[in-house]
Design brief:
188 residues, alpha+beta, four-stranded antiparallel beta sheet, 3 helices
Length: 188
């Protein structure tokens, strides 16, 4: 075996391993479709009545509430807003243009599943009560989807290809070394 043979073998091996993935772009791969990004949406709810719409978004222990009039989507700035989540009552504090905030206790901030909701509003002389359910999906505790593909599974084909390439290079090197060794034999 000579250097040209080894160089050609290494080049062919590299092309066989890396060229198919280099040429395939998004949509041309024959692999399984990629999973959706593992970004977890913040838990949210929406309640409405004939007069008002209320949207809540939980981030950690903070619950941001957005209140507007149902007829024209104008923000409601002067409301007294009380919220019952499950069996616990909270009073929302104004926090800007049609925005209110609630500081949740730890149990409510970490709750998952179906939680009954009741929002009681007082806006001037008007009173309203909005009712509904808040469905909160469970996450893996780190803000990721529990069904997302782990990183090691995505890297497994590359690791296997690297091991095959290494084995082929080692086999070629051993074959080259064996051919270079002088043959000592018995003269006839």
């Amino acid at each position: 075996m000579n250097f040209q043979f080894l160089a050609g073998t290494a080049l062919a091996l590299a092309a066989a391993v890396f060229l198919p993935t280099a040429l395939a772009d998004e949509g041309h791969s024959h692999d399984a479709a990629p999973a959706a990004p593992a970004t977890a949406a913040l838990p949210r709810f929406a309640l409405e009545s004939e007069a008002f719409e209320l949207v809540g978004v939980r981030q950690g222990r903070e619950l941001a509430l957005y209140l507007d009039r149902h007829a024209d989507n104008q923000p409601v700035n002067d409301a007294r807003l009380e919220l019952r989540i499950g069996e616990k009552d909270f009073v929302a504090e104004p926090h800007g243009e049609g925005t209110y905030e609630v500081e949740l206790d730890e149990a409510t901030a970490e709750a998952t599943g179906e939680l009954p909701l009741i929002a009681r509003l007082s806006v001037g002389d008007a009173r309203d009560e909005l009712r509904g359910e808040w469905h909160i999906e469970a996450a893996d505790g780190h803000g990721h989807d529990a069904n997302a593909t782990p990183a090691w599974r995505r890297l497994l084909p590359w690791a296997a290809a690297a091991l095959v390439a290494l084995a082929l290079v080692l086999a070629a090197a051993v074959a080259w070394l064996l051919r270079r060794r002088p043959v000592t034999g018995v003269a006839a």
